[in-house]
Structures are given as C-alpha cells and as structure tokens.
Amino acid sequence: MKLNPASMYRIAVVLVLSSIVRPALAQEKHAFTVLQAVDYAKKNSVQVKNLLLDVQLQTETNRQVTANAYPQLSGRVGATYNPNIAVQSFPDFISLATYGVLQKKGVVDGAGNPITVPDDIGLIQAQFGTKWLANAGLDLSQILFDGQVFVGLQARSTSMEWARKNVEVTEELIKANVYKVYYQLVASRTQISLLDANIDRLQKLQHDTHEMYKNGFAEKLDVDKVDVQIANLQTEKKRVENQIANGNLGLKLLMGMPMKDELMLTDTLSDAQIKGGVLEASNYNYSDRKEMQYAELGRKLNQYNIKRYNLSQLPTVSLSGSVSKNAQRNEFNFFNKGDWYTFSNINLNISVPIFKGFYTRSKIAEAKLNLQKTENQIENLKLSIDNEVETARINFNTAMEAMNYQRQNMTLAESVYDQTKKKYESGLGSNTEITAAQTDLKAAQTNYINALYDAIVAKVDYMKAIGKL
C-alpha cells in the first residue's frame, strides 16, 4: 500500500507530537525519607513559592526606598509655536524722550512758547518674541536631609528579615504537617504487616481446622467461622490499603508533587525513634519559635514607623540644579545654523513643615497604637506558647504511656492466641475460645496502631511547641 504525501505528513506530525508529549507525561519516582519529603515540600509548595515571591517583592520595595536617596537626573526638550505673538501695551517712551530733548534744547512752538511734555503721551503697542521657541536641558536634584527617607534606609534589612521569617513560619507549619501525614502512612504500613500476619495465622488455622473436620474432630461450623474471619481480615486490609492510597495523594498535595508521580516512603517507625530527642529538648525559649521571631521583627518595624513620622516634622534639605539651552526662530529651522543660548542655575531648597492640620500628630499616635497592639500580641503569643508546650507535654507523656501499654497488651494477646491455638489443636480447647482470642488480638493490634499514631502526632506537636522540630 502506498502512502500519499498528505498521509505521510500526518504521520510525521503525530510522531513529533508524541515525542514532545511523552516526556511531559513521564512519571517520576521518588523514594523519600521524612526529611527529604520536607525539603521537597519547601521547594514545591505553592504557599512557600508565593511567600518567596513576597521576599522578592520586598527586595524591589527596598530598591525603591534606596532610589530616593540617589541623585535624580532628568532631561527635557521642547518646542513652542506661537501662531499669534502676544501684543503688549506700554507708555510711549519714544515721544517722552523726544519731548525731553526738545525741552533741553529750548525749542519753542510756532507761537513762541517753550515745548512742554503733555500730561498724557499715550501708549504704544508692540509684539515681543518669535514664532518658534525651542529648549533642551538637564535637571539634577539630590536629597541632603529627609528624615523619612533615612528611616526607610535603616528599616530595609529588618523588612527583608520580616519577609524571610514569614517564609520560615509557613515552612515550619508545612514541616509539621508533612511529619504527621508521613508517619501516619508509615504506621498504616505497620498495620498492613500486622493484618498480613493475622491472615497467615488464620490460614494456617483454616488448614488445621479443615483437617480436623475431615477426621471428625471438628464441625463444619468451625471451618466456616475461620473462613469468615479470614474474609473480614482481607476486607480490613483492603480498607487500610485504600486509606494509605488516599493518604499518599494527600501527602503529594501537601508537598506540591504531581499526582502522577510515584512516592515511596523509606523511613521506618519504632518506639525508640518516637522517644528519641525529647529529653534533650525539654527546655525551651520563646525566641526558638519562628512565630515569636516574626512578631519581634513586626515590633521593630512599628518602632521604625514611629521614628519615621517623628522625623517628618524636621525640615527637609535638597540641592537642585539645571542647565539649559534655548533658541528663538521665526521659522522652524533649529537644526540649521543659528544661535543657542545657555543658562543654568543651582538651588538650595529647605522645606520647613509648619502646620498640616494635626495630620502628623495623628499619624504618630496611630503608629504608637499599632506598636502597643503588637506588644499585646507578643504577650499573648507567650501565653499561647506556654499553653501549647504544657498541653503537648501532657499529651506526649499520655501517648507514650498508652503506646507502651498497648504494645505490651498486643504481645500478651499474641501469646494468648498461640496458647489457645495449641489447646485447640490438642483437643483441649473450643473453637469459641480461639475465635475470642483472635478477636482480642486484632483489637489489641488496632489499639496499638492508634496509640502509635497518637504518639507520633504528640511528639510532632511537642517539638513544634518548643521550637525544636
């Protein structure tokens, strides 16, 4: 079969597009520890990205403040056309001068009388200027003293720290959430392992019970009960696997990871790991909290604001100068030969604020009130930190006690199940006893998994509360 040129062209286009689209849709695989997951979230979270843009915006704002302290240079060029040159009236100084000369020479009129200046010699009209005017020049100005500009320059570094600290506060919150979700998924993975172990136990029990039934030592009801228990555990495993899949998607969303990418969690979880590092971090300072550092920078900025308005009451001093050239023509021929006249000036400008309708006083009072609000918020934040630390410490201690107890209880339940199974296989126990032992074991395992996750959350909350996460 022959392909016509149009068909070959369409095939070529499809191949080219496929080569472009396939890499874009490629699935990436990520195997992360919890610290790597946190680093990924910091780099890819939309919240953090926007706050980093705020840092860049603050950088540009600082540049604008700095620009006010630099010399300001501007150029100008212009041309003016006067279709009708203005006419001006003024005393007839020519006639006046003529009469003066005649009087001085003693000239007399026809009647022999001396010449005298009339009381009203009248006005004459004349046009001054040309049809075309052109000018070009440079203007330069420099602030010598402006209190508000100087305070703005002093506040630049604090403004940048304030913007960066806002990023750190959000990163801390994201870090805590990533820790919780990550270890929740790890704990769920432990739950899957326990369910698999239970299924293995019951499948072995199923085999043994079936053999006993074939030999007449068990009833068909006993076999059915074991089958029901296995089906329940398999259903439970599917439910937990579905929770893990949904939790994995939630973790990707929190980290800013594409949903099509594959995420594997490489960390494991143990009781010792949960207990580790808590005693070493038992002491805390308010300054360890990112929120407190952020609030302190806010207070510093409010203090700069008060200083800015106070200094706005002082005179401002600036130096300015200009140099220009102008030309006058009756025709538009400025680019031809002709005279251009230069003039220049240098000015010292002092502006003294005298009265603004109490505006400045109001702004100072407003800034002081905002500072007071910030100080109240800082004091309230200290109370909140104290409350968070104490609550988190109590919750952590309670969670650790519960986890230790539930682990012991799970170990005991496993032992009870093994002993009950041996009794059942020896013909000394009933199916009811082994069913009850299996139910107790599953309940103990579920309680342990819940206690394990509660301990994880309690530790994350405690470490965050003391600023050591």
From TrEMBL:
This is Outer membrane efflux protein. One of its GO terms (molecular function) is efflux transmembrane transporter activity. GO terms for cellular component: cell outer membrane; efflux pump complex. It comes from Niastella koreensis (strain DSM 17620 / KACC 11465 / NBRC 106392 / GR20-10). It holds the Pfam family OEP. It is found in: Cell outer membrane. It comes from the Bacteria. Transmembrane segments: none annotated. Its main location: membrane. SUPFAM superfamilies: Outer membrane efflux proteins (OEP) (SSF56954). InterPro entries: OMP_efflux, TolC-like.
